[in-house]
Write a structure and sequence with these properties.
355 residues, Rossmann fold, six-stranded parallel sheet, alpha/beta, 2 domains, 15% strand, 14 helices
Length: 355
């Protein structure tokens, strides 16, 4: 009864907490969309790690994004504590009615409690069974089915105590300025008409395909008459990987924007593309969210959790062509290319199917 009364407030204020990586943040948007559908006039804020702000800051249903900057540690103990306290007091001053804690860190639970919100919902994680975790929340959502759920479905299950109908669509949002920047860059590069975006890199190289195989795939599509735009993050290793691929391809109708785009600008580029080809990484999730036709190459990641959600396209899993290690046992620093079992003709055929 108390929950119903609180959540019927005309000036309902909601805080969603998730402290993870870029892809994790993108996959929280169905929760935000579900909250907006249930409460059209609510103020919905998000607390995240500062470096992931780009994934959500342009979402039209979010009122304000608050960030925890991991660089605060560089300020020394006093400076760090000042920043933490400033954030806590700012959040408490918002007088939230509802806090949804999607994170599993103690920090997120304590922040939830400190807001003073009368309704605070977290997950009933096995590793967090105890009085303190329970005290930080007023209700806990079950995680009993999480091992069989996609990450989107796991996130949406936080809404179970609220009895809200879920909206399962993921939203990748960018601004008109992002779109204009991309259009300008494409014009400067001489890209005209339809094009394919290829993102061959991930920050974890065990998720990447062989540069030679990627170059063969691109060459086949160039010979079909398609234009290719290569993208990557700004990391030197990713840029070097793109240069290796470029050097192995014919030079006509191939362009590189590697390391030149923000994540939101990359979203705008993918949204314009006729097709996206990439590996298990954030851009793959962005392509799926934008409903750009997508060919995703997958290796030793948990497909149930991390396959592109509601993808318009095809997931090619290396496990169909050779043995893969247990995802929980992978050394993320390995130089092993687990995707190399995937044959070139399989990827080319999938790309042609969606062009």
């Amino acid at each position: 009864m108390m929950m119903n009364k609180t959540l019927n407030a005309p000036d309902l204020r909601i805080l969603l907490i998730k402290l993870r990586h870029h892809g994790d943040m993108l996959l929280t948007t169905p929760v935000i969309n579900s909250l907006r559908q249930r409460w059209p006039h609510a103020q919905i804020d998000v607390l995240l790690y500062e470096e992931t702000r780009d994934m959500l800051v342009a979402h039209p249903e979010i009122h304000k994004v608050y960030g925890i900057d991991r660089k605060w540690k560089q300020l020394g103990t006093r400076g760090h504590l000042q920043k933490e306290w400033q954030l806590l007091t700012t959040l408490r001053a918002q007088h939230y009615h509802l806090v949804l804690n999607l994170a599993d860190q103690w920090r997120s639970a304590l922040i939830s409690r400190f807001t003073g919100a009368p309704v605070r919902i977290g997950f009933d994680f096995n590793k967090r069974r105890g009085l303190i975790w329970r005290h930080c929340h007023t209700a806990l959502a079950s995680v009993s089915g999480h091992q069989q759920m996609h990450t989107v479905e796991q996130n949406l299950s936080i809404l179970a105590p609220l009895d809200i109908a879920p909206v399962a669509a993921v939203s990748m949002c960018y601004t008109p300025e992002d779109e204009q920047t991309v259009s300008t860059k494409l014009t400067e590069k001489g890209v005209d008409g339809r094009f394919i975006v290829v993102q061959p890199t991930s920050r974890w190289f065990f998720k990447c395909w062989d540069e030679g195989k990627m170059a063969q795939t691109i060459t086949a599509l160039q010979q079909d008459g398609h234009s290719i735009v290569l993208t990557s993050g700004p990391d030197k290793k990713e840029l070097a990987m793109v240069e290796t691929i470029l050097a192995a391809c014919p030079q006509e109708r191939i362009y590189s924007l590697a390391g030149q785009l923000t994540l939101r600008q990359l979203g705008a580029l993918i949204d314009k593309a006729a097709l996206f080809i990439g590996v298990d990484s954030v851009p793959m999730h962005m392509a799926a969210a934008l409903q750009t036709p997508c060919v995703a190459l997958f290796g030793p990641s948990k497909l149930t959790f991390w396959s592109p959600w509601q993808v318009k396209g095809e997931v090619i899993w290396a496990g169909e062509y050779g043995p893969l290690p247990d995802p929980d046992a992978v050394d993320t620093r390995t130089k092993e290319r687990y995707l190399n079992a995937i044959p070139v003709d399989r990827v080319v055929a999938a790309a042609r199917k969606y062009l």
